[in-house]
Amino acid sequence: MSRLVFERKPVVTVIERRLFLRQTLSLGALTLLTGCDISDNDSVQNVLKAMSWWNDRAQAFLFGHQTPVPTYAENDVVKDFRYNAFFPAADAPKLSAADYRLELSGLIANKRPWTVDQIYALPQESQITRHVCVEGWSMIGKWSGPRLSDFLQRVGADLSAKYVGFQCADGYYGSIDMPSALHPQTIMAVKFADEILPAKYGYPFKVRIPTKLGFKNPKWVTAIFVTNRYPGGFWEDRGYNWFSGS
Amino acid sequence: MTVPAQVQTTAPARSVQLHPLSRRIMHWINALAMFVMIGSGWRIYNFYPALPIHFGFPDYLTLGGDFTVTEAVSNEDGLANALLWHFAAMWVLVLNFLAYVIVGFVSGHFRRDFLPVSVGAFLRDFLDALRGRLDHRLGEYNAVQRVFYWGVLAAILVTILSGLSIWKPVQLQWLTALFGGYEFARVVHFFGMAAIVGFLVVHLALTALVPKTLVAMVVGRASETPHPRNGGQR
Prior knowledge:
Chain A is of the alpha+beta class. Chain A has six helices and ten strands; from the N terminus they run αααβαββαββαβββββ.
């Protein structure tokens, strides 16, 4: 989201701004009704939201639980992979293995927090897949790490629940459908291009979901939860389609 | 789409039935869906252009909400809105297109009005058109028009399929591979759009030259001396 990256402000100030702007919205809406732009009109927005909900259903229907994601050769891997977040790389969270704990909550039997070493100790998979951004750019990368499905089984997650949610050290949050979480190529990527995942790519791990658009792949994950209540997501709450499968 | 016989035989004002109601409805649904798809598609393109050259669409020509208002309301800079429009209107466009193509073949509209086409006829009519000697006969398509209509139908089909392939490069990976992979499929999608827009420019220019055709696409009929060759028989 290149245009977003450098213009984003920290979440807290953004929320304050939203509350302030809600009061000035009616003025904005008035000027729009007189103009030619119907996009921001409330009833139009409701129709668009309903269609987005319909598209979630359509994509879940299209989703193949075992459909393998196309993979590429080692020399297709982009070494200088694009840094992408709503803040500059210098502000990326720098988590230390000593302090880090992955918190678990919701419909999970064993909520004991996980250390980085415990995550590293799980059997790992490698994949060379295409990361597709909602903006349209794409890049081929190599990620390695334990399967999310293995992890969820190990901690006794309710695999019949609807959603798996994530919280991140940078304030980002997101959620995916259970079938996508259980896809064999959905991994907790602890490595990029065979190196320990650097801070700018999401240390200690990024959930790599090659069946979804880039923004559905959270970095710097600090908490995983399983739930039947729709948890939303950072960009989804800003109007992006929730399922965003590819 | 045959017209009741009495319309032709008893119409002293020489009112010609040109477009049945179903075709007119589908035409205007398509027009609306195209407007939304192209406008929102241009904005989506602008966020990360598929072409390797420096080219973007002016923001005021794109669809997806006023940037400052969208930023204020949803804290988002206008891409999400354009995507919502694009993926809402695609259902309308695709279902309407399918209906139009099925009706076109089944009713005989394509066979009667868009066939036959031949290279010779196309060249003859094309040269006549360039010399300004090609009359527009309401209710009859010359060879250039026929070729254009087949062309735009093909362009819409390619744009739909390449669009699906970039929407679902994993689930529809066979289709993405058919278009030369994800990155190239975006370029195909762009040129499919460009072909449709090219058609639209000519289509609208000709409609402006012969406004009766616009009337016909609204009310279904137009009064004009029917071309002697078919005597108004459609």
